[in-house]
Amino acid sequence: MRDSFQMVARIPCPVTTPKYFAVAGEVATMDLLRSFGLPIPEIYGYSPVQDNAAETEYIFMEFVKGICLSDLWFDLTEEDITSISRQLTELESKMMSITFPAGGNLYYTKDLEKVARSPGVPLEDERFCVGPDTRLSLWYGRRSQLDVDRGPYSSPEAALLKGAEKELAYLKQFGRPLLPFQRQRRESYQYRNQSPSNHMQNLDRYLLIASSLIPKDPALSQFRIRHPDPRLSNIFVSRSPDSSLHIVSLIDWQHTSILPMFLLAGTPERFQNYDDPITQSMTRPFAARRFGRPKRSSAKQREGTLPSPSNEELGDAYGRGDTPCPIVFDAEDIRQTMKLDEEPRGADEILEKCQNFIGVGPQGWVPVERYEEAMRRSKQLKEDTLAAAESEKERAEIAAHWPLDDMNKEEYM
């Protein structure tokens, strides 16, 4: 601007859904968390509707002077990484200490009153309330057309049930036989369309046991909030005069949900690591080693049965070890399910190796500077695989279902 003032104008992508709730929810979330002292850009103005001079939804926010952590990550020292990880942990601890009366998404009360079919659950600061959940899985594709309950969630059980109920409604209205979405898995299904009935049956089974998945510790069922995607590109840092790094901003709060704490727990995906030497060398817990082995000098050993982790350990955590399971599987169903689980798992591992060879991420993403080389490798890999096919039928199946080709996803939405 003319006076050197800088700000960020954020507009939603065309595929963003639900736009009104997504924009309104992001603004309210940022405002509330900033009021608790978290490093979040200040909001200058916003519109969750297109009825404005710009003819689009928008958010005007503070321009934060800092460096994107993804631009520095591979040049950081171990001391820098430790410091940033500790700071992020402290920020998450502060964030997750904020209590909420219900689950869903955060809104300004005035924004939700304009569009919601029912009032939100107010916070102590009545400018804010909890309303419908905006997680993409609840709205993706034709799911946005469904008139279903997406919150606010009055209980942890509701937070577990509503997603499955939504998906059942989607399958009943739009479901039809389709090839598996993950193309590398189609061979396991003999390249045949699969009926949605099996998935619907599994969702019905899930609904029978969902309430039993809630931990008995009430602290784990309290509604909390957490950044949905703390990837490196969403963290901005600056260096102090002594060269130490400090987190100065967390961005991209779209689709931030308020959920029971047990659904928010876990190491952020971008910081998770199972392959380093330290993790690989860790000793397995004694209890985990014991599962699957007979107890010595026990009646169970003489009977040929084994101790079950779900009864001995998981029962302690969830407090319902004496509740009969409402779902029963016969032996043949179990055998077929285990076989069907194993075959696609092998296909997934092969695809991961192919992606590593090409140099692309799980969703096919590749940096611009490596795009041409990745395309060359992908083309060569497909040609080599087709050349190794043992029949024309196999060659045609590979060509038609190659997992790295472009794909029209519309029928799966």
From TrEMBL:
Residues 23-258 form the Aminoglycoside phosphotransferase domain. It comes from the Eukaryota. Signal peptide: none annotated. Residues 287-322 are annotated as: Disordered. Pfam families: APH. Residues 290-299 have a biased composition (Basic residues). GO terms for cellular component: mitochondrion. PANTHER family: ALTERED INHERITANCE OF MITOCHONDRIA PROTEIN 9, MITOCHONDRIAL, AMINOGLYCOSIDE PHOSPHOTRANSFERASE DOMAIN-CONTAINING PROTEIN. This is Aminoglycoside phosphotransferase domain-containing protein.
